[in-house]
Amino acid sequence: MQEKKKILAISGSTRNGSTNHKILKLIAELVSDNFELTLFDGLATLPHFNPDLDNVDSLPKEVEAFRSQVSEPDGIIICTPEYIFSLPGSLKNAFEWCVSTTIFSDKKVALITASASGQKGHEELNLIMKTLGAVFNDETSILISGVRGKIDVDGKIIHEETLEKVTNLVKKLLEDLAVGGS
Q1: What is the rounded distance in angstroms from the CA atom of residue 92 to the CA atom of residue 94?
Q2: Where do the NADPH-dependent FMN reductase-like domain residues begin and end (predicted)?
Q3: What are 182's strand-pairing partners?
Q4: N or C: which end of the chain has fewer CB within 10 A?
Q5: What contacts 36, CB < 8 A, 6 or more positions away?
Q6: Through-space distance between the first and last CA atoms of the chain, rounded to whole angstroms
Q7: 3-state secondary structure of 89
């Protein structure tokens, strides 16, 4: 039996019960038969980026663990809200800890911005992932505006078009992973 491909899911929200966490949990259910999905839960524990600490001798252990979790899986799904027309600071901070590495280079990713509006945050997420060398396209990058009206309290997507977008994004990422690995 072939080993399951591994996916790391990163929520840009540090809020308990966020819609972004709910979307990632739904995706975990969608892929559970064929893929192993792990939700990264250490975003809030990462120290503020400091270039002086970005070396082997002084790298904080939380950053080392995060980089390891990003480098190991075959693919990554990022689901984030937009804060003040940008990414949440904690998510951008995590990405800043990756700039001096190649851990996102050629990594297949799916990008979801789920927020009230989200347009500017989604543009920023796409730009940062391109800068880090991640591999994605229009089929693996979606914006869900007005997300709170599209997901119920149990985390089910109740808006048919949104459910279709998420399902198609997951399907395309899984196809990409099946074809080319990481």
Answers
A1: 5
A2: 6-136
A3: none
A4: N
A5: 4, 5, 6, 7
A6: 20
A7: helix
* 82 φψ region: left (φ > 0), alpha (ψ -120 to 50), beta (else): beta
Domains of the chain are: 5-180 (3.40.50.360)
Structure confidence at residue 55 (pLDDT): 86
E-only strand ranges, 67-177: 75-80, 108-115, 141-145
Q: Which two tokens stand for residue 33?
A: 């038969």
Q: Does the pLDDT of residue 180 top 90, yes or no?
A: no
Return the CA Rg of the chain: 16
The confidence score (pLDDT) of residue 16 equals: 87
**What is the DSSP code (8-state) at residue 168?**
H
Pull the structure tokens for residue 144: 């869900």
In which order are the strands placed within the sheet that holds 108-115? Answer: 35-40, 5-11, 75-80, 108-115, 141-145
